[in-house]
Specification:
Blueprint lengths: L2 H10 L4 H17 L7 E4 L5 H8 L8 E5 L2 H9 L3 E4 L16 E5 L8 H11 L5 E7 L7 H6 L7 H10 L3 E8 L4 H9 L14 H15 L9 E7 L7
Parallel strand pairs: 1-2, 1-4, 2-3, 4-5
Antiparallel strand pairs: 5-7, 6-7
Length: 246
C-alpha cells in the first residue's frame, strides 16, 4: 500500500459512505454464515483497522480475538495502536505466520486484486482458518470498468463473478454466494473508465454531509438485495470444509 493511500484510508474508513456500505454488507454476510460472537476474526489486508473496529463495536467479535494482517508497517502500527493484535505479512509470507488460534472468520476486503497470485493467498488463509470457518471477500468488479484509478491503486485485475468463484474454489473454499454491489455506481464508474484523464489524487473525494448520508443510505439499502446483475464491486462468501487432518 502506498503511504498516501494508507493515510487516506485512516482518514476515511469509519465515516465515509462507501466504507459504511461495505462494512454493513460484510457484517450481514458473517452473521448469516457464522455464530456470533465469532471465535476469532482475521482481517487480511486490514489497512488502518476500520473493519476490525466496526466488527468489535457491532459485537461480531471480542477485541481480544480480532487480528489484522497487512504488508504495510505503518498500517500494522495503526492497528496495534487501536489495541488489536496485528502482524506484518504479505501474501508470500502468510505460510510462515503463526497465530495463537485459528479464526472462525476471515475477511479480505479489496485485497485480492492487488496480488500476483491470489489463489495461493486464499490457500494460505484456508490453512490458517478453523474448520467450517467463513470467508468474506470484496473485490472491484468488471474488467470493462478499468480506469486510471485502478492503475494508481496498483490493481492487477478487476473480477467477474465467475473468475472470483474460480479463485476461491481453487484456494480451497466452498463458495456459498457471489454477488454484485454498488449497482448504482455503474454509470459514474463507466464514465471514469472512458475519460482518459489523470486519476484524482483523493480516492474518496469529500462530499457534503447530506450527500454522504444519501449515498450511504441508498447503497446500503441496495446492498440488501442480492440479485443485481452487475455492479462496481463483488462480494463472495465461502466456508472452509473440514479436511482429513482437522
Amino acid at each position: 500500500m502506498k503511504a498516501e493511500h494508507g493515510e487516506e484510508l485512516a482518514r476515511r474508513d469509519r465515516g465515509y459512505w462507501w466504507f459504511r456500505t461495505r462494512y454493513a454488507t460484510v457484517e450481514r454476510s458473517l452473521r448469516r454464515t457464522s455464530a456470533v460472537p465469532l471465535r476469532g476474526l482475521l482481517d487480511f489486508g486490514c489497512g488502518s483497522g476500520g473493519f476490525l473496529r466496526h466488527a468489535v463495536d457491532r459485537g461480531l467479535v471480542a477485541a481480544s480475538e480480532a487480528v489484522g494482517i497487512d504488508g504495510d508497517p505503518a498500517a500494522v502500527a495503526r492497528v496495534r495502536a487501536m489495541g488489536f493484535e496485528a502482524h506484518q505479512a504479505d501474501a508470500a509470507s502468510l505460510p510462515s505466520l503463526s497465530l495463537a488460534s485459528r479464526p472462525a472468520a476471515i475477511t479480505a476486503l479489496d485485497v485480492l486484486e492487488h496480488l500476483d497470485d491470489p489463489v495461493q493467498a486464499l490457500r494460505s488463509l484456508r490453512a490458517m482458518a478453523a474448520p467450517k470457518a467463513a470467508v468474506v471477500v470484496l473485490v472491484p468488479a468488471l474488467p470493462s470498468l478499468w480506469s486510471e484509478w485502478d492503475d494508481r491503486l496498483g490493481h492487477r485485475r478487476r473480477y467477474r463473478a465467475g473468475s472470483l468463484r474460480r479463485d476461491l474454489e481453487a484456494g480451497g473454499w466452498k463458495v456459498k454466494q457471489v454477488r454484485y454491489l454498488f449497482c448504482s455506481m455503474l454509470v459514474p464508474a463507466w464514465v471514469r473508465s472512458r475519460v482518459r484523464a489523470a486519476a484524482a489524487r483523493d480516492e474518496f473525494p469529500s462530499v457534503p454531509r447530506w450527500l454522504d448520508a444519501g449515498l450511504g443510505f441508498a447503497t446500503t439499502l441496495e446492498s440488501r438485495f442480492p440479485w443485481w446483475p452487475a455492479g462496481t464491486s463483488l462480494c463472495a462468501i465461502g466456508v472452509s470444509e473440514p479436511q482429513e487432518s482437522e
